[in-house]
Write a structure and sequence with these properties.
The protein is α+β, with helices and mostly antiparallel strands and 65 residues long. The chain contains three helices and three strands. The protein starts with 7 loop residues before the first helix and ends with a helix.
């Protein structure tokens, strides 16, 4: 039986925390930054957790299920 491959895109985008939650970065911080406020850009800098409803699909892509 062949091994299941991890999605390369998911592997690059998500990291696991010590408690098993999945960390992600915010979108909309790569270009066209002049029209965005300093406050908005600062909030987009910090990473956050993947929502509970999306956790299953991300774990499946990372071959954790």
């Amino acid at each position: 039986m062949p091994k299941q491959k991890t999605k390369s895109s998911a592997k690059k985008r998500f990291k696991l925390t010590g408690s098993g939650k999945i960390k992600r970065k915010h979108a909309f911080k790569s270009h066209i930054l002049t029209k965005k406020s300093k406050k908005r850009k600062l909030k987009l800098t910090h990473s956050t957790l993947v929502h509970k409803s999306d956790e299953g699909s991300v774990k499946e892509q990372l071959c954790l299920k």
